[in-house]
From TrEMBL:
This is Acyl-CoA N-acyltransferase. CDD domains: NAT_SF (cd04301). Residues 4-175 form the N-acetyltransferase domain. GO terms for molecular function: acyltransferase activity, transferring groups other than amino-acyl groups.
Amino acid sequence: MISLTFRTATPSDAPKIQPLVQSAYRGESSRKGWTTEADLLTGTRIDIPGITTKILTPNSAVLLAYTTTQENEELIACCEVLQKSSDTAYFGMFAVDPERQAGGIGKQVLAYAEEYARRNYGVKKMEMTVIGVRKELIGWYRRRGYRDTGKRGEFPVEEVKGMGGHAVRDWKELGFVVLEKGL
């Protein structure tokens, strides 16, 4: 398993984070991995100001995962952890370099984020939203202890349109499933 180094992002990291998130979800580069949304959506997944806002939000952290060699440090994954309440944190903006997916990096990042939420926010559970038609992704989270809460959320159509995107499929197919895990 690849060894990762973690740290919390600062606003100066946003320009490095944005292309990582974009490459994991949208466009042709995302098709190299299995987390692509390219068959569902087009456009920018998140922009630099959006990432900066996440970094600066109180009780929130954008976590970065690097591989480190003597020559350099390479950003290969990130995620957001946001304290929603005294007992619940939200996990989002999860991205792994598409060329490095399916090698155990995602498991390490998720485990680190869960521990970070426990340690820093004292929460007892982690929650996330996943596009409901993403059955393979929902299955991956289930194998890591997440369960479907039965709650559903509307897809942020206007947000996607505002980022220059559109749905490849019908918008109505893109609602969110809320997953949760006890920590």
